[in-house]
Specification:
single chain; alpha/beta; Rossmann fold; 7-stranded parallel sheet; 3-stranded antiparallel sheet; 7 helices; globular; binds 2-phosphoglycolic acid
């Protein structure tokens, strides 16, 4: 356990293709990789590059298992902001051959706590956790206050996350809650990648990587992961110490 995350900083124009190339390399080494995937604006260009690679025959997900990182609760099926809808539209349904499994979070059933427990079991053996960084330092919906031993669970969303559902992702209503893979599973993944782009994330990225680790900025707990890679573009990395 150490504070020695690998930091990969790239020009914005090269960022998505470089992240995608690294995932293509992982999948060619280990086609049956079990990966958790985020939604949001950040990973979109990576997914586009992966779809292009799959269509060109440079990679296949047909033996891989894709596990959803998080989900809004309270959005109707088909809502454009839903994480399952976005992941399918941006990646899963665009692959020429489907993944071996796509494990979504059941947010439509009567018992979200039971759905979270089932998803915790699905997240128990992740080879790679791919994550985005929220403007408040969240990873998945591990909002400020989250702890490194938190399980996959139903969570109360930060006000900024609820607002983002509508204002940023076009949700048709305000979600009531979230379900997220917890930090315990993310820290237990064999490898973790934190994807961060744009100057709007520069300040929170610096605080997550340089300030003391703690629950105010949940992504800071990732520094306890033995194999963390931070993939940042130059805008997001602009406030990090040089070198
Ligand atoms: P973004 O969201 O990728 O749309 O910036 C990240 C997050 O809030 O987790």
């Amino acid at each position: 356990m150490g504070d020695d995350a690998r930091r990969v900083v790239l020009p914005a124009a090269d960022w998505a293709s470089a992240v995608a190339a690294e995932l293509v390399a992982r999948l060619s080494d280990r086609p049956a990789l079990r990966i958790c995937l985020p939604t949001g604006e950040t990973p979109g260009p990576v997914y586009a590059a992966l779809v292009a690679a799959a269509c060109d025959g440079r990679v296949s997900f047909d033996r891989a298992t894709l596990v959803m990182l998080d989900a809004w609760v309270g959005l109707p099926p088909g809502d454009p902001a839903r994480c399952d809808v976005r992941l399918r539209a941006e990646l899963v349904d665009r692959l020429p051959r489907p993944p071996a499994a796509f494990i979504a979070i059941d947010v439509d059933g009567p018992d979200p706590d039971a759905a979270a427990d089932r998803h915790d079991a699905a997240a128990a053996r992740l080879d790679l956790a791919i994550l985005g960084l929220g403007p408040n330092g969240h990873v998945g919906f591990n909002e400020p206050g989250s702890r490194p031993d938190d399980p996959t669970r139903l969570v109360r969303l930060a006000a900024s996350s609820r607002e983002a559902a509508v204002a940023r992702y076009g949700a048709t209503r305000v979600p009531t809650a979230g379900i997220t893979i917890g930090l315990r599973r993310l820290l237990g993944a064999e490898e973790a990648w934190l994807l961060v782009t744009g100057e709007r994330k520069a300040s929170i990225l610096r605080r997550c990587l340089e300030d003391p680790v703690g629950p105010d900025r949940p992504a800071s707990w990732l520094r306890r992961h033995p194999r963390l890679t931070v993939f940042a573009d130059e805008g997001a990395a602009s406030l990090l110490p040089r070198g």
